[in-house]
Amino acid sequence: MGTRGAVDAEVGRIMSLAAEQLLRRLSELTDELVARTRDTDEAYRRLVPADDHWQSVHDAMRHGIGAILLPREERRDVTQAEATARRRAEQGLPMDSLLRSYRASAQVVWEGLIEAVAGEEPESLPVLVRGATRFWHAIDRQAVAAADAYRRREAEMCGRTAERIQALLDALLEDRADAALVRSAAAALDVPELARYAVVVTRPPGRQGHGRDAPRPAVLGTMRLLWRMRSDHEVAVVLLHDAQSGDLTRGLEPHVAGHAGISPVVGSLAELGRARRLAEVALRTCAGEGPQVARLEDRLPAALVVSQPELAGHLSAAVLRPLLALDPGDREVLLGTLEAWLRCEGSAVRAAGRLYCHRNTVFNRIRRIEQLTGRSLTRPLDIVELALALDAVRLLPAP
């Protein structure tokens, strides 16, 4: 055997001698390490039960110290480290706390090895020092394995947690939530059961859902938004706190490139299914290509139209049939003039500015609309019929 081999053999002998001594003191060393860890790390005291902590430290030290006595293929220290790390991840212990415990364990065991050799063969302490590299490499190997196992388990739990949160949101939004599920959802989502909520439904621009809006905000001022992504639209549950739905509308506008509908405010998680349905109605009142954020309270007449498409179709046909029978260009000019007149509250001057024409032109077109439809824009009931019929033409698919 060469000099190097002789030295390695002597190092192995001394470390085995010390390891056997430490295994006889295993419970004492476990008590020391557990006490040191729990005295200095509040996370262990709060998250890891004392008996669980003691047993896992006892097992880890038994396998770790015992590894000194075994061939590499028979060692179980890394397997034990991985099992403990997975459990600590499940308990929510921070990884920093876990890794600090490995440093503390290494210190306790190394001090124990020195004490054992000093008591049995003090002249062999220099030989033990030669084995320090081997010892600390073993500790590093355990710590690395523990960190990897912790991250994998944490990723698994995050994935399952995300799936569960999405499932709970779906149940709330689809009105499938009983009282127990509402309580579970409130705990999982970290929101109150009773609070001021609204629901937002957004649709990206383009008929096929092409195009992207700005990144979805999780917070708008004091409001918190929980998003549920779907293939052709997105839904957000909004915890309003003290904000108003108008604040939500203004806050969303920079983030929406397509269309969005906002429900009325509801008072609990259990009402989110109804709020979602009303937000979808608000969304259906959006027409055209530009960005729009529609709050239901601001679109109630149009909401009535899209909610009753068959009746609305009959209304538009009954009220606007002669106008709709015109050639497309003429028809669109008159419909656009009617729309501008209604939006400008009957002001010919403002409507002319919107349409880029003279106010007399607006008057002439209005008289023609009245002649064609048999309705007068000076009679309130006629105005209601014309406004609802116009919404039906703009919002419902052509027959």
From TrEMBL:
<feature type="domain" description="RsbT co-antagonist protein RsbRD N-terminal">
    <location>
        <begin position="28"/>
        <end position="164"/>
    </location>
</feature>
<dbReference type="InterPro" id="IPR025736">
    <property type="entry name" value="PucR_C-HTH_dom"/>
</dbReference>
<feature type="domain" description="CdaR GGDEF-like">
    <location>
        <begin position="177"/>
        <end position="285"/>
    </location>
</feature>
<dbReference type="InterPro" id="IPR051448">
    <property type="entry name" value="CdaR-like_regulators"/>
</dbReference>
<dbReference type="Pfam" id="PF13556">
    <property type="entry name" value="HTH_30"/>
</dbReference>
<dbReference type="InterPro" id="IPR025751">
    <property type="entry name" value="RsbRD_N_dom"/>
</dbReference>
<dbReference type="Pfam" id="PF17853">
    <property type="entry name" value="GGDEF_2"/>
</dbReference>
<dbReference type="InterPro" id="IPR041522">
    <property type="entry name" value="CdaR_GGDEF"/>
</dbReference>
<comment type="similarity">
    <text>Belongs to the CdaR family.</text>
</comment>
<feature type="domain" description="PucR C-terminal helix-turn-helix">
    <location>
        <begin position="334"/>
        <end position="392"/>
    </location>
</feature>
<protein>
    <submittedName>
        <fullName>PucR family transcriptional regulator</fullName>
    </submittedName>
</protein>
<dbReference type="InterPro" id="IPR042070">
    <property type="entry name" value="PucR_C-HTH_sf"/>
</dbReference>
<dbReference type="Pfam" id="PF14361">
    <property type="entry name" value="RsbRD_N"/>
</dbReference>
